[in-house]
Automatic annotation (TrEMBL):
Intracellular or extracellular location(s): Cell membrane
InterPro entries (UniProt xref): AAA+_ATPase, ABC_transporter-like_ATP-bd, ABC_transporter-like_CS, ABC_transporter_ATP-binding, P-loop_NTPase
Biological processes per GO annotation: response to antibiotic
PANTHER family named in the record: ABC TRANSPORTER ATP-BINDING PROTEIN (PTHR42711)
Entry keyword annotation includes ATP-binding: yes
Topology in membrane: Peripheral membrane protein
Keywords: Antibiotic resistance, ATP-binding, Cell membrane, Membrane, Nucleotide-binding, Translocase, Transport
Cellular-component GO terms for this entry: plasma membrane
Protein name, UniProt field: ABC transporter ATP-binding protein
Principal subcellular localization: membrane
SUPFAM superfamilies named in the record: P-loop containing nucleoside triphosphate hydrolases
Keyword check for Translocase: yes
Single GO term (MF): ATP hydrolysis activity
């Protein structure tokens, strides 16, 4: 148990002229949930597929449970669960049959009926994969990934397109895997999901790691006071009323943020100063609240707001 669940060092993957992964390194621990986050095209799926042994790296080193995903594929297969982005289930396979087939590959599988029920698929057990709804297809491939009681699972966007009920069921399953000591490496575009589920976050952009750390550390600090009011307030006048190190911005119009750097506490005194300034200027600060930095804030700070190809 001394090796990490996943160790990626200086990984490079190219597709012709496109360098999808440009020297990427991270470690995912056992018994923990590691979220790989990044904008579209950042290189997450390429990285995960190399770890799964589905793709060959151009350079770098990857170890999964201490083994090489290509050379040791045979040993790793029963120990690692995989939920690919594309589902990975033949279109004609019936849900129940597919899970029973997957179960047959493992020494001590979770009973297929248990998983079908857990993931709300019992009534669809006889339905061919292509006739399942998108959300049902997602849930079936999630079930297939965990049926063998793996030591490690890779989940590529496990909750994309799921309704809120199914998303919660998937989250509960991930939390149980973690509690059972299973390592989970997942990708997601839902920052709230990553914040809620993961112990560790790796943010990737343009094939490189731009942030890597415990989820709680990445979002620590950075409290802001936010409120709405009419557009065009004199933000420099408000800033002048505040302690040194506090800045006021308006973005977008009518949305104001007060952020303080250094030792200034975002406490009741600061709130009072802001509301006193508002009262003196006949401004009603609506939705006044202290905003804690979320993973989405960190993500956007690091990767920007531009759309990706
Ligand atoms: N088989 C392929 N052939 C050519 N280019 C590819 C291939 N697979 C991925 N790419 C390119 O590599 C880059 C990284 O893609 P990848 O799917 O790894 O990113 P991603 O972070 O998973 O993106 P998304 O969030 O959109 O799923 C993109 O520019 C993509 O177009």
């Amino acid at each position: 148990m001394d090796t990490a669940a996943v160790e990626v060092t200086d990984l490079v993957k190219r597709y012709g002229a496109v360098t999808a992964v440009a020297g990427l390194s991270f470690t995912a621990a056992r018994g923990a949930v590691t979220a790989l986050l990044g904008p579209n095209g950042a290189g997450k799926t390429s990285t995960i597929e190399i770890c799964e042994g589905f793709r060959r790296a151009d350079a770098g080193r990857v170890r999964v449970l201490g083994l090489d995903p290509l050379r040791d594929a045979h040993t790793l297969k029963p120990r690692v669960g995989v939920m690919p982005q594309s589902g990975g289930v033949p279109t004609g396979a019936r849900a129940g049959e597919w899970l029973r087939l997957m179960a047959a590959f493992h020494a001590n599988p979770v009973p297929p009926e248990t998983l079908l029920e857990r993931l709300g698929l019992s009534s669809a057990a006889r339905t061919p994969f292509r006739r399942l709804s998108g959300g049902q297809q997602q849930r079936l491939s999630l079930a297939a990934a965990v049926i063998g009681r793996p030591e490690l699972v890779f989940l590529d966007e496990p909750t994309a397109g799921l309704d809120p009920q199914a998303r919660i069921a998937a989250w509960e399953l991930v939390a149980e895997l973690r509690a059972a000591g299973v390592g989970v490496v997942l990708t997601t575009h839902y920052m709230e999901e990553a914040e809620r589920l993961s112990d560790h976050v790796v943010i990737i952009d343009h094939g490189r790691v731009v942030a890597d750390g415990p989820t709680a550390d990445l979002t620590r600090g950075g409290q802001e006071l936010r409120f709405r009011a009419g557009a065009g307030l004199d933000v420099s006048d408000l800033a002048a009323a505040l302690p040194a190190g506090c800045a006021v911005t308006e973005h977008p119009g009518g949305h104001y943020t007060v952020a303080c750097a250094g030792p200034t506490e975002l406490g009741p005194g600061l709130v009072a100063t802001v509301t006193t300034w508002c009262a003196a200027n006949a401004v009603m600060p609506e939705d006044l609240r202290v905003h804690r930095r979320t993973l989405e804030d960190v993500f956007l700070e690091l990767t920007g707001r531009d759309l990706r190809d």
